Amino acid sequence: MARHSKAQNLEEDEPGLDISSLIDICFLLLIYFLVTSTIQPREQDVDMSLPAAAPSEEPPPIKPTFIRVDSTGTIYMNTGPSQETLDTDTEDRKVPLLNARLQEINGIASASGEKPMVQIYVEDNAIHQRVIDVLNALKKNEISRVTFTDLVN
Fold first, then answer.
1. Which domain holds residue 111?
2. In this predicted model, what pLDDT tens digit does every residue of 72-123 receive, in sequence order?
3. CA neighbours within 13 Å on the CB side: how many for 128?
4. Where residue 129 sits, what CATH number does that domain have?
5. What are the residues facing 145 on neighbouring strands?
6. Are 104 and 98 in contact (CB under 8 A)?
7. How confident is the prediction for the chain on average, in pLDDT?
């Protein structure tokens, strides 16, 4: 009798790759990066109470502060002869002069028991990042009564 040996099927001999440990490592890396990353505050989280569309009949108890952003990114405060130039360096996102003036205004308004109101005028070709810098400075100084205006006194 001849011995017949069965030939092994080559398809069954292919090595397999167990990826269950790879999935575990991917989840661990994901958790590591989520835990170690810092969360930047989003600029749209600035909560401001914008005024209604219809103007009120009674004047505000405290005179509004006027801030203007021109097309070069320069920030001005007040209008007319009392206008002062604050921050001209568009690379400095912290706007230190504006922050100092807003801190003074907030202190004066708090002393009188009122909340300061700010009107912002933005020129047509103004740098949008400068407007965001102004809004961030207002948020930093806890000024939430803000309106955008197109009227220059």
1. 62-148
2. 999 999 988 999 999 999 999 899 999 999 999 999 998 888 889 899 999 9
3. 1
4. 3.30.420.270
5. 117
6. no
7. 83
